[in-house]
Amino acid sequence: MRARWGLLALVAGVAVAENGLSGWLRYASLPDGQRQQYASSLPPLIVALNSTSTSPVYTAGQELQDGIQRILGRKLEISHEHSTSTSSNSSFVLVGTLSAYNKLGSQSLSTDFAPDGFWLNIKGGAVTIVGQNERGALYGAFEYLSRIAQGNFADADVVSNPDAPIRWVNEWDNMDGTIERGYAGRSIFFANGSVATDLTRVSQYARLLASVRINGIIVNNVNANPRMLTNETIAGLKRIADSMRPYGIRVGISLNFASPGPDGLKETATFDPLDPTVIAWWEAKTNQIYQQIPDWAGYLVKANSEGQPGPLTYNRTLADGANLFARALRPHGGIIMFRAFVYNSNMNPAVWKDDRANAAYDFFKELDGEFLDNVIVQIKYGPIDFQVREPASPLFAHLPNTNTAIELQITQEYLGQQDHLVYIPPLWKTILDFDMRVGSKPSLVRDIVSGQRFSRTLGGYAGVVNVGTNPNWLGSHLAMSNLYAYGRLAWDPTGDIQSLLQDWIRLTFGSEPSVVKVITDISMASWPAYENYTGNLGIQTLTDILYTHFGPCPQCQENRWGQWTRADKSTIGMDRTVSNGTGNSGQYPPEVAAVFENLETTPDNFLLWFHHVNYTHRLHSGKTVIQHFYDAHYDGAATAQTFVPAWQSLQGKVDGERFDDVLFKLRFQAGHALVWRDAVAGYYYNLSGIADEAGRVGHHPYRIEAESMALSGGYRPVAVDPFEAASNFTAIVVGSGPNNNGSGEAAAVLDFPSGTYDVAVGYFDVAGGRAHYGAFLNGEPLHEWYGDLEDRLGHEFSTKLDAHSATRITIPDVDVKRGDVLKIIGLADGNEPAPLDYVAILPKGVVD
Ligand code: GCW
């Protein structure tokens, strides 16, 4: 206990609660036995060469001092000069840039360095960290600290260079402080229309980003507000840049293409990119920014997409639009990231050959070679939109004369919104390692975006992150592995995703073997499980793309947004073949196109992405499409159930605060995975009429439907829309209206053999009320709870009874005798009419 209090005292000034604020930079004290010997071998001094207080080298010195003290319990002094008394490398921990190091004279290092690269040499206690630039020096310091924090004291002599120069994050923060697709509270950058006054969290964020070698950030939503360019905002952006500069993070913004014009700041009569007044405006604005922020990163632009303005309005090309900004930025060394996410968002599902997946290629292929050298075309990983599985965007193969970057999503918009555990790197790897076979030569996506394949000097990674004011950044402790791994993969996309995960686990939760094993197991199982219960065989995430993007709604795909599944009563899938469909398979280079064109050679996991088939079509696995759907949904949901006991086995090995937070989410996920399973399997069963060979779909032997219980008080049955969101399509609710405070009771006599059961209750937790529930057995209270998930979870909430609000809780270990009476009392609250779907009386080990 004393040791623990000692640690807390040391970290005064940093939040001491285990609330996730320090993320993987927690630097927990190592066990005494492990640290003492190494700590005593360290020299007394850190030398940070030639550094001013805003330089990353200075930061590196501070980080080393702080990290070593916290991890090893020994405080080293920092010197910013290399004096004769410290002339031998073995007498200090040295950090500096290559040029500063070589000026020391004692030795000259000639290593093959790329910008931001570093050399780390550890010999016993002597540590030398040399960066190609200041940023590299900081990265080397973080690398050293990561090693010792994981108890790795081995000697090392490594040079590490980035695979790609652009390793950026994109935040989708709005100036009013909300965040598009953010699930962790409000913006750390903006509030009430301005840059936030207190930027403490911004510099803490910069620290996390730098530790995984991210070097740039776009701080506002791609659906951008013209007011990002007012003098007041620019002054605020200067403050943001000042707080991120010590960590080597360059700052940029998303632009609204129409900013100068009549719908924007009203300073020009048009926003035509070829109009001289518009060109002059952007130049002046850009000069103004660089005057205040000399290391400004540049701009990100979403143009002519989803209602955003762009050059097409004036019949100018997208390249004309990008080059407008490129010219303004070029004299200052700035970069323009121009998004390839351009498509017609008003498509007609009745047109068989229309295909949103064709859009990026259609818009950009012809423009190859027309973009200036400081333009990077930023391409979402797949042709649609961050789905649970997509083939790599064919556009990667067609811009040999253009810089490109891949856009990945760390924020889990279509992947459970941080309330489902999904470790995403396995999905990213399917894209990064995909071989486009351009010109029949190896053409991995990762080598295209790094610039290597087409000999481009610029390119790399953009990750949509959307951190918020929640102390744990993303709204989920476990989701932070995605941000960590994103940075590490952008640096080295060949990295082993399980090892990266385990580095993150040890840094975040400690090195206790069972902790590392359990979090590894559930994380590695999470994406396959999520794909299984949300959208398999390449059908996309079957979520409600018209509303929250959270829960299931298979039929919601068939609308103007062009994410069609073309499911009818006997067939399903998009025919993207050249021979009979949208021609999308022909957008890939010939060797790849041939694989996707042919039903036989298309991998099962992309079958429905490329082909329209009968539900009875047999996969390579031998199963029919429909049976695969049923099995996958049952398997995936069953896997999600196992996360709960796996995590529970860590009780006492993870601090209480984070243990409870994670457990709450995993329990929610287990319940919501069943909602997904039942909704998707039930929907296709209803549509196709084809029974599940295993007899599960539509059969719930352990459930008692709420509508068939004895109802009293205010409870009455309602048909739920969409039907598949409720067991037997029906729920019960109390009263209605915004001031609803009615109550009701639902009771059932339990006709099950006497024994110990888990009692599950399926209900709906909607936004706008906190209904109160009580469960009673023979009048004795079993459990009470509130419909208050909106206070505890971060996903987008629904105001209706649907598959987003559908959820369930489990009351474990209830002793039941045949003939007992189970009663649920529901008290409505405002918009939440205490909706109940079913109760399930589950023998141990049964999931129904
Ligand atoms: O999929 C859509 C998201 C939008 C997002 C858009 C984009 C920022 O639902 O919220 O807008 O993608 O990437 O531009």
From TrEMBL:
The active site is at E306 (proton donor), D385 (proton acceptor), E413 (proton acceptor). CDD domains: CBM6-CBM35-CBM36_like. Residues 23-144 form the Alpha glucuronidase N-terminal domain. It catalyses: an alpha-D-glucuronoside + H2O = D-glucuronate + an alcohol. Gene3D superfamilies: Alpha-glucuronidase, C-terminal domain, Chitobiase/beta-hexosaminidase domain 2-like, Glycosidases. Residues 150-473 form the Glycosyl hydrolase family 67 catalytic domain. The keyword Secreted applies. GO terms for cellular component: extracellular region. Alpha-glucuronidase involved in the hydrolysis of xylan, a major structural heterogeneous polysaccharide found in plant biomass representing the second most abundant polysaccharide in the biosphere, after cellulose. Releases 4-O-methylglucuronic acid from xylan. This is Alpha-glucuronidase.
